[in-house]
Amino acid sequence: MDDELDKELIQELQKDGRKGYVDLASKLNVTEGTVRRRIKHLLQRDIIKIVAVPDVRLLGFGFVCIMALQVSITDLRKVATNLAQNEHVCYLAFVTGRYDLIAIVVAKSPEEYRRFLESELYTIPGVLRTEAFVNLDVIKGSTSLPDTTQLISKFDISSLGKTRKSVNQASTNTPKTK
After folding, report:
1. What are the residue boundaries of the structural domains of the chain, listed by start?
2. Which tens digit of pLDDT belongs to each residue from 8-17?
3. Model pLDDT, residue 163
4. Which one of 3.30.70.100, 1.10.10.10, 1.20.210.10, 3.40.50.2300 gives the CATH number of domain 1-53?
5. Could you say which of 8, 104, 116, 142 would form a disulfide bridge with 91 (CB–CB 3.0 to 4.6 Å)?
6. In 58-129, which residue ranges form alpha helices assigned H by DSSP?
């Protein structure tokens, strides 16, 4: 496997996920068949997904924040499951450190965000403390996705021996205790 070619394909698709196989082949000096096979293989291994990524700000969601949550350890999974089902929560992860969860929350306005806090978040049993980091301006990446172009350019794709399913199974370990 030519890992450098896979990286270059991923980087090109990050710039424009709709770029055609012929254009990619021409840009990377390989055949269209090679591009087609490589992309098919990357998709099958769940290394990439080709999806539409909306710009949430252009859709009217002008309020974006990163929220850190401290949660009662006995309620951690219940809180996470509840938050994951909320339309305002676009990203949610268990984390280490002072907080237990990190979320990216979007709303149309500060008022809508306040309503989310009062009527949804603060009504979830087990939420002990929150701290919000309001997005004022984006320097790198987008409000929809983190910018991974530098990460991919330095990544060793050959280290990906696992499929996405085996990685997900490994990540279902018991959460940290306090």
Report:
1. 1-53, 63-134
2. 999 999 889 8
3. 47
4. 1.10.10.10
5. 104
6. 76-84, 110-119
For 83-105, what is each residue's pLDDT tens digit? 999 989 988 999 999 999 999 99
The string of DSSP letters for 136-170 reads ---SSS-SSS---HHHHHH--GGG--S-HHHHHHH
Sequence-distant (6+) residues with CB within 8 A of 23 are none
| pLDDT per 10-residue tile (average), the chain, 178 residues | 84 91 96 96 92 80 93 97 92 96 93 96 96 90 62 66 48 44
**Eight-class DSSP state of 174:** P
In the sheet where 89-94 sits, what is the strand order?
A: 89-94, 101-107, 63-71, 127-134
Architecture of the domain made up of 63-134: 2-Layer Sandwich (3.30)
Q: How far apart are CA 122 and CA 24, in angstroms?
A: 49
